[in-house]
Amino acid sequence: MQFLVALLLFLGPLIVFGVLIGRTLESRHFRRLEQHAQANADFFVTQLKSFPYAISADAAKSGAPIGAVTPTLVCTEVVIASDYLKNFFASWRNFFGGEVRSYSRMTDRAKREAVARLIDQAKALGFNAICNVRVETAEIGDRRKKGAQAMASCLAYATAYHCVEASGRGAMGGLTPDVAWNG
Predict the structure, then answer these.
(1) Number of domain units in the chain
(2) What burial class does residue 14 get, using C-beta atoms within 10 Å of its C-beta: 0-12 exposed, 13-18 middle, 19+ buried?
(3) Are 143 and 150 in contact (CB under 8 A)?
(4) Positive or negative CA dihedral for 41, 44, 47, 52?
(5) What are φ and ψ of residue 145, in 5° steps?
(6) What is the pLDDT of residue 95?
(7) pTM confidence score
């Protein structure tokens, strides 16, 4: 009995500390992604296969930089790992059944981070829009093995191009990048 009390006194604070630190880091990452979306609200993001509001070849002849007119493929990959405590609680959820929300949030974080990196990459190349955004996810690691860590891998790619800014609407039309590509 004394052993169980000592074990609880030792493990209890560790579990509470792990939960608090994990949630703090995760919420900080979500806040950073939201700030990135707000900072890039003028960046046009869509899943359309065409180039909405694209600068035409005639605009290139009129003096627009050629690099900003020729569409370019941008690609990024993000891997986000889960901590051991989430894996432990997820194994219980897996045993009883139901949605494993911690893994859903981990995959959502990976997708949003990948799209944010696509936007940064396109901006670095001088573009102000991406279209044909595609996001592929996969689980990395074999959770059946003892001590294995669950990770979400997200590969995102899109076509970066330069779009014409319509007066008064902004390139996004009031949508944030995560809303525009999600629909």
Answers:
(1) 1
(2) exposed
(3) yes
(4) positive
(5) -80, 145
(6) 72
(7) 0.71
